[in-house]
Amino acid sequence: xxxxxxxxxxxxxxxxxxxxxxxxxxxxxxxxxxxxxxxxxxxxxxxxxxxxxxxxxxxxxxxxxxxxxxxxxxxxxxxxxxxxxxxxxxxxxxxxxxxxxxxxxxxxxxxxxxxxxxxxxxxxxxxxxxxxxxxxxxxxxxxxxxxxxxxxxxxxxxxxxxxxxxxxxxxxxxxxxxxxxxxxxxxxxxxxxxxxxxxxxxxxxxxxxxxxxxxxxxxxxxxxxxxxxxxxxxxxxxxxxxxxxxxxxxxxxxxxxxxx
Length: 260
Description:
Shape: flat
Largest sheet: 5 strands, mixed
Distance between the termini: 82 Å
Number of helices: 11
Strand content: 5-15%
Structural class: alpha/beta
């Protein structure tokens, strides 16, 4: 009689199985050992998670697929921004063109993802995208033209930074003054994979910028709060006054200007 596989060997075997009808699963299900049952349960949970992510990706590609079916709209750029609400730092926009055969599981609205997952997906999007453009408008531009207009400028810059001229734009809750055909969606980062990918690129880019600013201007907790008005940030404003990257047009900062 053949000696049964060890639990460690079974766990390794399960990593090679990607379909619930694989006949090897039936053999394992007949194994009475508790360790095998636990390994099978873990595999089933992982398989369901992967299937859910694949279904989510297909739902979030419905808009792109409609446009991709039109041969004139093969290069679709998703556009999103991060940083409209903070009291300090820039607003950052990203434009991302994904290939038709894109398969990056887990892309979603960046706000729904952990820091670690965003970093992982940032690298995957960078490696897979046909084109990525970044637009950055600093605090002084925000103060000069207001945050809404600065966001538009950042998005337009992101489009201009793309290595490919897109055929169509999918934008999160914004209309842009451009001749390129566009569609705008409320909560677009939850509806379009391209917009969601752009939200991840923009979020990670801005978080890294704010971490660098935290080294230049310590005391406001920029590395953790990204410039948003958290308790630590407001306490830093009270204690240190306004630093060079604060947005003077935002009320909590404007009230402290005389302290710096």
